[in-house]
Structure formats: structure tokens, C-alpha cells
Design brief:
Helices cover 67% and strands 0% of the residues. It is mainly α.
């Protein structure tokens, strides 16, 4: 059975590269965004003069470095789970990766919207948005491979496909002597 190729890659290779891309992109995001996330103004909050939405926004802005660091660590773990799931052919790990990536990028957009007003330079805001949007588009590209491979694994487990079955061979020399049957003649017994 010939596997389909998209952009010169099979679904399995694209899925592994998706995990590698996510690990590298998350590390780069933490490196390049740490200054912007740490520079948010978190002075003492006067809780009596502000509305609930303002308090929630201020809380998210102040805790955004910790939130992003925690979510990034979980994202790296989910990417490692993705790579292991490809190796072990576990479709559940691939689905968990897809759901987590959607959640991670949604939280990143919310943090970007809330913390982008603190940046005074327009070019820095444009660069941050460009980085986030390009990363989201790349995740959408790689999610296609992950979804396709999860579907392949699910269908192969469902049907018990022999293509994905790892057979074990004996450690013997591989020569099996033919055994002759002990019954050489089949005498016909008729009762007349």
C-alpha cells in the first residue's frame, strides 16, 4: 500500500515535524517575548474603584508571564507526547495534542490583546502580532498532518490492519524441516 504524500511528506513524517516545530516555536516564543511580558505595569491594584472586568484584565496582565510560562511547559510536554504517540501509534495522544494546541493559541491571543497596549512602539506591536499570526498559520498547516495520521491510526486499529502490525520472528535459523505425515496410506475399510 502506497502512502499519500502532501508537500513531499507522509502523514507520519508531518506529524513528527509538527511536534518538533511546536517545541522549537514555543522555546523561541519564550525567549523573544520574555521582555514584553515582564514589562507590564503591575502596581498596587485599588480594588474598590475598579469594575470586575478591569480587575480581571489587570490580574491577567500581571500574571501573564507566569501563565505563559506554565502553558508553554505544558505545550512542550504535549509535543513530546505527540512524538511518543507517533512512535507507539496511539491516536488519543494525537487528539490531545490538537485540542491542547487550540487552547494554547487561544490563550496566547488573549494575552497578546491584553498586554499589547503596554508596548509604546508601534513596530514592536506589529512584530509581536506578526509572530503570533505566523505561528498560528504554521500550526494550522501541521495540524492537517496530525489529524490525517490520527485518522490513519484510528482506522487501522479499528480494522486490525496488518500493515501496522509488528510481527515478531523467531530467533531460529529460519529453516523449518518439512514433516511427513505418519499416515502414508489411507486404507479403505468397507464392510460388505
Amino acid at each position: 500500500m502506497r502512502q499519500k504524500h502532501w508537500c513531499g511528506m507522509t502523514a507520519k513524517i508531518g506529524t513528527v515535524l509538527s511536534g518538533v516545530f511546536t517545541i522549537i516555536a514555543t522555546d523561541l516564543y519564550l525567549i523573544f517575548e520574555q521582555k514584553q511580558l515582564r514589562s507590564s505595569n503591575c502596581t498596587e491594584i485599588n480594588q474598590w474603584n475598579k469594575t470586575v472586568t478591569t480587575l480581571i484584565n489587570q490580574l491577567l496582565i500581571c500574571w501573564s508571564p507566569n501563565i505563559i510560562l506554565f502553558l508553554s511547559c505544558i505545550t512542550i510536554i504535549s509535543s513530546c507526547l505527540l512524538i511518543y504517540s507517533v512512535y507507539a501509534q496511539i491516536s488519543r495522544g494525537l487528539v490531545i495534542y490538537i485540542i491542547w494546541n487550540f487552547f494554547y493559541e487561544t490563550v496566547n491571543v488573549v494575552v497578546q490583546v491584553l498586554t499589547n497596549n503596554d508596548t509604546g512602539i508601534a513596530e514592536v506591536r506589529a512584530m509581536r502580532w506578526f509572530g503570533l499570526v505566523s505561528r498560528i498559520f504554521m500550526h494550522c498547516f501541521w495540524i492537517f498532518f496530525v489529524t490525517t495520521y490520527a485518522h490513519i491510526i484510528y482506522k487501522s486499529k479499528d480494522k486490525g490492519n496488518i500493515i501496522f502490525y509488528n510481527r515478531r520472528f523467531s530467533a531460529g535459523n529460519g529453516k523449518f524441516p518439512q514433516q511427513k505425515s505418519k499416515i502414508i496410506n489411507f486404507p479403505r475399510h468397507y464392510n460388505d
